[in-house]
Amino acid sequence: MNAREQELKSSAVTLSDMEVFIFPELMYSLVLANIMSPRIWRWRDAPWFKGLERMKPHRRIARVKQYIMDHYAFNLDLATWGLTTKERELARFRDFIDPAALAQSNALFGYEGDKYYFDIDIRTHFGLDKYEGNVIPYWKTETVEAMDAFRHRPNYASGAGECVSLATLYAAALFIVARVPLKDIFLMATPLHSQNFVDVADGILTNNRRLVTKTMWNNGTALSAQARRALEHERVTLVAHESGCIHVLYPEATIDPEAFQRFATKLRGFLQTTLTAEILGNFVRHSGPLQKCFQVRWRNFGVDRYIASEKLLAYEGGVPYRFNDDTREKLMEEVAGEDFECQPLPGRIVLDDIEQFVRDNAVDIRTTEGFARLKEQFASTCMNAECAIKGLREFCYVEPRLPNIDAKRLRREQTPLELHPTMSRDEIIARLESLRDQNDSASLAFYAYRDLNRVEAEPFLEAALDRCPACVSAAAALDDAAVEARVSQLVDESIYDDPGRIAHPDEVWNFGRGDGAEKALLLATILRTRHPEAALRIDVTPTEAALHMDGRVVRFPSRKALRQQTWDCTAFAPIAVA
Known about the structure:
It is a single chain. The chain is α+β, with helices and mostly antiparallel strands. It folds into three domains: 254 residues, no CATH class; 120 residues, no CATH class; 114 residues, no CATH class. Strands 8-7-6-5-9-10 form a six-stranded antiparallel beta sheet, with helices on both faces. Helix 1 packs across helix 22. The radius of gyration is 27 Å and the shape is elongated. The two termini are 29 Å apart.
């Protein structure tokens, strides 16, 4: 295979965020690997999903959400998968992407986003500031099996995964369990986040473990603020779909243009709303820095009293009432008398007046005319009126920064996946097998699936021996004999259920378990870095893996039923630990 094909296949095994960014077809390959996995299919038998087929789509999706909430934590432990260096990764990908473009689009290479991310110091926010100089962490995406296996790590009570892992898990689970057609699921990646848009009713965003509806998008709560962050402040670099993908940096796209246009139209509709009195109140709740621009009037015993919006909102935290719905009166009854002022607070807009103006006038704040009308109405009241009204417009009208499909060269010769929720797991696997020479995502799915009875071993071995630094660093204080003893003592159990499917060395080490073939490769990975000149190979049979190094043999029994093969570990460069 050529260099790009080798890099692509081995990247499908590693599945780091950076690899997914550079090879966008990998995103959907992980979705398909999870769809082939028996794990999510077993969810159908869980009592939680009993009677699911009789539920409406939105309720089915909500059931999947709660199951994921209960069984998986969001995990961004940057040390889990070890460290590499900027120079090493730039050299690896220099033939595939311009380093300057990478630096503008990836947090590990200097991406800061727009002003919002400068303000919060994005590297500190994500914990990247502890890696000085050229050292960067591997951000690896997990299969559902690796996500489940986090429960074996200290301090984890459940499965876990980072945002790409959760996005691909959601896509697979919505298809398998909630029976949402793949044509209605779109995966989106920004430089710092991944989430899905599901074309059901008004639309649903999956955001890490949670779901966000259109109503929730505009409700002004802290959770919705977190959900809005990426699409408000970042461009969408990648959209992946059953029909293909589109990437902001590459001139060619494989996604079906009609599907993309449907997605773009529905997403814009989801992110934009008509200004109403309730939405106005949600904006005030959402916009902490701008709350000082507003006050609320309340008539008590026939006399108008006034309260700063931030004071009133503080009362919402302890009661089930809200100031911008029909429970306002009950909320006002909770307010202490001394928090009211007898006169309007100077320099603040009276929220009641702007609510009435919005009710009486069809104001389209998106237009220049509508913006000017609102500003004119309240500019004399508040010096910050223009800033507040601009913030209101941005709250109501989020324009997603999507790749421009009109500027792309479309490649449409791939055979469609044509997977349907009515198909069985065996039928889906057979269908994907039949498409391996006709569809990129289907082909790469088997490498992400880690089945060495279905793919050649070289891409898997390269990813294992070249990109698993965590086990090497963790074993640094042990001599060779102690390492061999530690590996032999690991629980004799693979995180992958099926025959032929193999975990990577870092997964075996991190989760403290592995089949004999996986243990042999883990030991070989560590020894390869210590003895780079040694002849190192593993002879694999259906029942055993025998590690040979300089005339010595270490044997591990195996239940993986792997076809007989030899893994030449000296064919790949040893890991350079950062």
